[in-house]
Amino acid sequence: MRSPFPCLYTRTGLPAKRFDANRRKRGFNGDRSPEQPVKYRQPCTPRRRSYGSEALPSPNPRFVRRDPIVPCRMHRRSRMSGLQRHGIWALACAVLSSVWAPGAGAVEGDEAVNPAVAAVYPSLVQIQVVMGAYENGRQQKRQGSGSGAIVSPDGYVVTNHHVAGHAVALRCRLSSREELPATLVGTDPLTDIAVIKLDLSARAPDAPPLQAARWGDSNALKVGDVVYAMGCPLGLSQSVTRGILANAEMISPQGRGQEFMLDGEAVGSLVKWLGHDATIQPGNSGGPLVNERGEIVGVNEIGMGSMGGAIPSAVARPVAEEIVRTGRVRRAFFGIVFQPLLSEPGRSRDARQGVLVSGTMPGTPGADADVRAGDIVRSVAGEPVHVRFQEEMPDFNGLLSRQQPGQPVEFRMLRGDREQTVRIAPLERDEAVSRQRAWREWGFSARRVTLMDAKARQRPDSKGLLVATVTPGGPADKAVPPLRAGDILIAMNGRAVDTPADFERFSAEQVQGKPSVPVLVEFERGNEKLLTLVEAGIPEPHPPVAEARKAWMGVSTQVLTKKLARALGLEGQKGVRISHVYPQGNAEQAGLQVGDILTHLDGQPIDASEPHHTAVFETLVRAYRPSANVEVTLIRDGTTKKIGVSLNPAPKSAGELQEHEDRVFEFTARDLTLHDRVQRKLPETEAGVVLTQVVAGGWGAVGGLRADDIVKSVNGQEIATLADLQAALKTAIEKKP
After folding, report:
1. Are strands 193-198 and 332-333 parallel, antiparallel or unpaired?
2. Which residue has the higher pLDDT, 103 or 150?
3. pLDDT for 47
4. Which uninterrupted H or E stretch holds 629?
């Protein structure tokens, strides 16, 4: 079943640095209260292909790397089987029914469409994003594409969290085809809203001012109103589709774990989507939903069969404006779980007022105020509460979240037949899943312990460092017992680790820059407190092993097998056949040719006739001094000849050359060998270094580099040797363009 996200259009391209490579490029050059503990689930995973896929870990969407258009699928199919049967939350795949762009042919309704398009179309932004997520103890990067809208002349753009919330690099294409870099201002997974800012300093001096779109009132919309979905479907340029509002308060399915989760947050706890039938495709996410007056009334987010879903502007606008002001969203947290009122026989729910308390979280303000399951809250902060149906829960949750953390809030409640009033001072709501960071010296990625993490583990506090992913074969994995995802580190060599900053200070002082440091680690796993010894550090690379210079003739050969000899009319003959003569070498000067059958070396038979005799000839040659003169007996065109050849020292092999492992771009390179030049038919004057490894998900891979590429220049600087590459990369990293 396909993902609710219609946004992510994966492709190769968009290099983080410019590398000129000597090869052809491939591809493109429910109703859960926010007070309730949330259950973490990944939003989507890729469609599998025969050539494999590279997937990303939680909490981000996963991608297939070389498929130009890949719809996501929901993760954990076994839990979503009910949704699969009913086709709920599937990606919208209907054929575009009406696509509008400036200059398109007129059809009935132009008079209504053109003003709306003129008002918002110039503000549309295509967002190309490199996003990071963590797997196997390191950050992996993938590329995607989404949409957004400029909402202020100074370059603020509103989009979805699942488009830009985990961005490590952003580049935006305006409707004028102008391309600008951008930075992430802030993001809110609970409403799936993010704000990015265009770098206006990169614009031409004579560039016209940006046109900002206006916000509209989503509460004024009615079912049947005409709406326009604007964005960049499939990673293409800006487009417009038209439809009607089909549902003004669409909610996520309830029960059986069907809540719409994003980064551990239940998005539907605050959002009632605007359901519409304006066609949206992958790449549309983050684009505006526009009314006939040319105002943004929603932010497109999900697709469900033939319908799309947009976050109402009544939710998106205040979130975006708070992010612009402060960089984040502050919300109140009471620790109380609510649900709609229960039905009572013979009594209409319409006649009752309030919302039902279904429980409290221990150690939270709600529990401390003695709020109990079964209580009915009649008003909050003086505002009457009337929650009869699931559709009314997001509004109530919004009322709770808007209260000021630390400021007492009056709750008027009914317990049994007795009314009572309590004042509860909420905490500031913590994020469900905190941001990760990788520590290569330790071989894991880890994050801060959130309040939700602590409550889920029944811990008294949020101290410690939560291990998220572990590098197979890394220091943490090799420890006995090994560290595992979910472990919480609490001390290093007896020194308390209360926060990630404490761990970072310890690591910088004791481990950083050292090849191996034994560290006694105390950690929690479930109800146990365990000790392990981690050999932290990054081992120094092994120097290349220098080999004694052995004799070399300057030819490549193949065994003259019995079948091959019979086919050549040389049945019973043993020896080797020359398959390549290295140019400008002694063998070429002596007159040896491809196709010659070598039978003797200084009169000694070359006893090779089976496929596994590949090393016989080379062993005979290497027994001589590098400067020796030898006589070879050969058969050419049915005639036996003897030719004298001067041997040379064997050229250096790849294993004898120094390699450079770049830890920023995550690739390994070395100088070219003679064998590299021959295999690639490169002239002696051809400069460059060869990549021996490119780590998947690193900056090099994101930029399109692959193993066996030959790097010829970096940012315009010619690369002739490995030393040139190291210097160029150091300069590029220091500049951080």
Report:
1. unpaired
2. 150
3. 32
4. strand 629-636
Please tell me whether residues 287 and 150 are part of one structural domain: yes
Residues contacting 213, CB < 8 A, separation 6+: 119, 120, 123, 149, 150, 151, 288, 290, 294, 295, 296
Identify whether residues 247 and 289 lie together within a single domain. yes
Range of the domain at 396: 332-428
What pLDDT shows up at residue 16? Answer: 35
**CA 296 to CA 119: how far, in whole Å?**
10
> Would you say 662 and 694 are in contact if contact means Cβ atoms under 8 Å apart?
no
- The angle at the Cα of 718, spanning 712 to 724, to the nearest 5 degrees, equals 95
Among 649, 682, 711, give the residue marking a domain's end.
649
pTM above 0.90, yes or no: no
pLDDT tens per residue, range 344-365:
665 665 557 899 999 999 999 9
- 209 & 127 share domain: yes
Residue 269: phi and psi, rounded to 5, are -70, -25
Shared domain for 106 and 140, answered yes or no, is: yes
**113 and 47 share a domain?**
yes
pLDDT tens per residue across span 54-100: 222 333 332 222 233 222 322 223 333 332 333 323 222 222 223 33
Name the CA radius of gyration of the chain, rounded: 33
CATH at 561? 2.30.42.10
Phi/psi for 76 (5° steps) reads 60, 70
641 within some domain: yes
User: In sequence order, what are the beta bridge partners of 558?
Assistant: 577
